[in-house]
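Lay summary. Proteins are chains of building blocks that fold into shapes, and those shapes determine what they do. In this project we predict the shape from the chain. Here is one chain we studied, written as its sequence of building blocks.
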Amino acid sequence: MKQEIEKHLKSMFERWAGEEVQSFEPLPAHGSDRQYFRLKSKHKSAIGAYNPDMKENIAFLSFSKHFKSLNLNVPEIYSQELDKNIYLEQDLGDTTLFSFLSERRAKEGFSQAIVDVYRKVVEYLPRFQVEANEGLDYSVCYPRNSFDRQSMHWDLNYFKYYFLKLAKIPFNEQDLENDFQAFMDFLLSTDRDYFLYRDFQSRNIMIVDGEPYFIDYQGGRKGALQYDLASLLFDAKADIPNEIRKELLEHYLNALEKYIPVNRKKFMQFYYGYVFIRIMQALGAYGFRGFYERKEHFLQSVPYAIQNLEWLLHNADLPVELPTLTKVWEALVRSSFLRQLGDAHLRLTVRIQSFSYKRGIPVDEKGHGGGFVFDCRMLPNPGRYERFKNLTGNDKAVIEFFENEPEVERFLYHVNDLLDMMVTNYQKRNFTDIMVAFGCTGGQHRSVYCANRLADYLKEKYEIDVQVRHRELEMKG
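And here is the predicted shape, written in a compact code that computers can read:
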């Protein structure tokens, strides 16, 4: 079979190029049955593809012709022989957005050069979604012509059977199914009359002379605008920093407004729902390829997907009640086993806050329950002195007061020692969230000072994200 494929592709190439093939190089396989080869002659180069799925080939070739007619950056199709399941396409090189990102990031972090390329990509996305939507032949879509209830149910079951069950995450099947139905009802209630690329992520985008080119859109169909943006910005191993995600989301919406009117509030109501379902679809794929097919490199993406899931639980409020599904997400976030798959090194965030016991201990509603609450009420209290009553732990005079109190230093020494143990352990286990709270009587002096001191200590010692808030001062402000 392999020899037959090589023979047919070489013959096709030579008819197209008018030259003999000098090299025939298999390209790395990904998560499908498609096979790709680079063919070169003296003056020409092309990518030969073999795919035994006829309907998928028809979809890809039809979409390619339509996209090319609109001057979209997709590979030109040089030749095709559908009866042999082969075609020849433009050679766009070897630099994917993911390889570009990985190489640059290793040298210079998530630099402006990376952001600039991502900005070009999100500017391009509305062209596929809106411009290419007009006149596209949706009858060739495979396996469905719309990301509808059936498509969503397939993805959710993929997640349930190939990830949750194989990762041994417990759940009540009927209750989870009820939540799936409610979740789909919600997702289907937005406008879904646009082209949905389906797998719009960093490995399906090539970088050619600094410009993005797009491949692997054979799974395209009608759907909601939010899905493809979610695929790109929450692409697991790309690990885009949250502040950059926010910037790119805004840039995308500005680009989209050049094509259609955009109700941003309505867009955002559904956006995080589509992020959730995309992450579940990806986890299903990782589970199938990794747990089931034993292709362990797919499992390397799992910790990054879990990190994204954790961020969503902290920051995304869905306007639909999903109690069982939420418990499943929380169980995934708490799993040490899933976080330690592969060689991922996730970035830890320590959330520090001060509070007043009069208003109660803060509840860690969005974290996974890791951290400490420290009682500062045994420390010397500057609030007893008139000159400090209107000041806070942020003020120089109060800081100097505490710096002259040995008890405060001894207390903070032990706090730092505990946090050293926890930060080191959490980094080793790829946990990404710790909450630390300092309480005192009024939440104004002792707790504020201690929270600030711990934040300074952690920032200086570790490469982690540290967030500080002073609950009572925010209430007064």
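What the prediction tells us: The chain has a mean pLDDT of 95.
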